[in-house]
Amino acid sequence: MSAEVHGTQKFDATKRTQIVFSASAMALVQKLISNYPKGKEKSALIPVLHIAQAEFGGWLSPEVMDYVASVLQIKPVEVFEVASFYTMFHLKPVGKCVLEVCQTSSCWLNGAEDIVHYIEKKLGIKVGETTPDGMFTLKVAECLGSCGTAPMLQCGASYHENLTYTKVDQILEQYASEGRPRYYTDLDYTNTL
Amino acid sequence: MATTLLLKHIAVPGIKSLDVYRNMGGYASVEKALRTLTPNQVTEEVKKSGLRGRGGAGFPTGMKWGFLAKPEGVPRYLVCNADESEPGTFKDRYLMEHIPHALIEGMITSSYALGARKSYIYIRGEYFYVSRILQHAIDEAYAAGWLGENILGSGFSHDCYVQVGAGAYICGEETALLESLEGKRGNPRIKPPFPAVAGLWGCPTVVNNVETIAAVCPIITMGGEAYSKIGIGKSTGTKLISASGHINKPGVYEIELGLPVEEFIFSDAYCGGIRNGRKLKAVVAGGSSVPILPAELILKTAQGEPRLMSYESLAEGGFQTGTMLGSGGFIVMDDQTSIVKNLLTFARFYHHESCGQCSPCREGTGWMEKLISKFLSGTAHESDVDLLWDIQSKIEGKTICPLGEAAAWPVAAAIRHFKSEFLELARNKSYVEINHYKRLQPVS
Ligand SMILES: Cc1cc2nc3c(=O)[nH]c(=O)nc-3n(C[C@H](O)[C@H](O)[C@H](O)COP(=O)(O)O)c2cc1C
Ligand code: SF4
Ligand code: FES
């Protein structure tokens, strides 16, 4: 999909041996695999990559992809094929918090460009860049299904909607103090009820 | 008061939970189907209801179910399309987030009709938290015996799973979705074979939109005949509309099909009119793929008839003067909106989302984006409008999946109805700056 995907990262065998899912992540992975018929374990690949990305620093290194391949008993290239297709997977290191501002029609109609410029100015980076402290990466995204509450941005598993400059200030402060966003694996769905 | 079926109980506190949902009459369709109807009778009710797919194409649901191949000894699957990525569309998210059991109930009743032992809900990866809400609803349904072995002692057993995607509009296309569900890149398959014959893991599969599946519940509970009396003509039932843009009250509304467009935009029961006292300029009525219409053509057809929110009325006049209901993503633009800039956001979207298998789509979407940006950077010539028209006209019908034409139609419609704006941008460079930007509303 996007042009930037093709990894320039080199495989490092020593790093590879250090990569292993935590017990709780592994339990979730096993549960996901059991959702599919015998012999169709590969179907769990996308959800498992989400878990891997959350577990191992917010992006998918060649070593992580190799590890995921071994867990699902498929070829590493099958993992790369998929990881490089989907925009939510990062094949290069990113900041701890990736801010994705929707720029499509309804968000644009409601001032998404102003939000992007405001964040650029505030963080001193351009779209696609990461702050020197490695905290924030700014990206633009396409419609995230939040058009009625535009403009909006996503960070990790959280949606921030009806954005204003004041709200952006609050969000950035919150993440800076918490150190990282909530991931897929953090979500305890019983709390969202 | 207008009929509501799907969102009837949206305001009931705790409607997310199984207990409250059940108290409000939830799971009645499962009871009725499993206790009193055969699977074929359920399908017959859906046929009688006249329900049409709510994912965008409007294909009759009962007929689609009727196509499902049923070879002995081969599993069949129901797959719910919760990929919802068509710009302007957020109704499935709203329904799943607030009334998750409406979807789970529909999955069980529909799977019974189709003879599916297992079903999957494929939800776009960005909706992480919604996938957790669904999973919680599924867990509740298992605990209460609505899912699992021998449901209600009927002998019918069913398992339902949620799977998240990872950010790819193309995975809303049903065969790309199946590829993705199988753990592959979301490249659409060449059809035939259709999923009804060879779908998930090569098995017969029905793919339906979230709202379609949820609509099966009221259909079975009230009967297909009664459902078919709601709405207008062949647009039966109710439809969820995602309303956004320059309106006073953006949000998701359930309308009875046949509601006048004018009432939808200006009535306080719905969009509440155009924001900041401005005038209506244009509407994209059914998600980014459908042709944009200027105010006069969205409110009235070319014949001067009031335009209605229905499959037929919105399509009245074909692409010359009409549009489509599509996914129900209703984007409203005020009189200060640059149609060309809005179009650029669509063109960029389709270029980004093309899977790249077919050259007319892969290359065409890129060329269209580039050309449209030229108008907005003040470097376009008047003749570029014709070039743009030429490119868009060479995509439709020449690609594996309909994303190609979905990218071409908005371009064609913008030129058809707003050609003067393109020409003005090419002629008058000072016009460019004014048009470039849609400013944020005054900040609170
Ligand atoms: C590029 C593309 C994107 C699509 N995106 C969606 C989507 O996000 N949700 C959806 O329900 N249908 C989407 N569709 C339509 C599906 O292919 C399919 O027709 C639909 O899920 C069938 O369900 P229905 O009959 O209940 O509408 C898309 C189609 C195309 C060509
Ligand atoms: S039309 Fe576009 S998105 Fe569809 S298969 Fe071809 S290249 Fe892929
Ligand atoms: S256009 Fe931004 S969320 Fe839909």
Can you tag this structure with a few keywords?
heterodimer; A: 193 residues; alpha+beta; Arc Repressor Mutant, subunit A; Glutaredoxin; 4-stranded mixed sheet; 8 helices; 9% strand; globular; disordered N terminus; disordered C terminus; B: 444 residues; alpha/beta; 5-stranded mixed sheet; 19 helices; binds flavin mononucleotide; binds iron/sulfur cluster; binds FE2/S2 (inorganic) cluster
What can you see in these coordinates?
The complex is a heterodimer of chains A (193) and B (444). Chain A is of the alpha+beta class. Chain A folds into two domains: 3-85, Arc Repressor Mutant, subunit A (Orthogonal Bundle); 97-192, Glutaredoxin (3-Layer(aba) Sandwich). In chain A, 40% of the residues lie in helices and 9% in strands. In chain A, helix 3 (45-55) packs across helix 4 and helix 4 (62-72) crosses helix 5 (76-83). Helices cover 43% and strands 13% of the residues of chain B. Chain B contains 19 helices and 13 strands. In chain B, the strands form four sheets. Chain B has a five-stranded mixed β-sheet. Chain B has a four-stranded parallel β-sheet with strand order 3-2-1-4, sandwiched between helices. Chain B has a two-stranded antiparallel ribbon with strand order 5-6. Chain B is globular. The chains are: A alpha+beta (193), B alpha/beta (444). Bound molecules: flavin mononucleotide (FMN), iron/sulfur cluster and FE2/S2 (inorganic) cluster. Iron/sulfur cluster binds at residues 170, 188, 354-358, 361-362, 399-401, 403-404 of chain B. FE2/S2 (inorganic) cluster binds next to helix 6 of chain A.
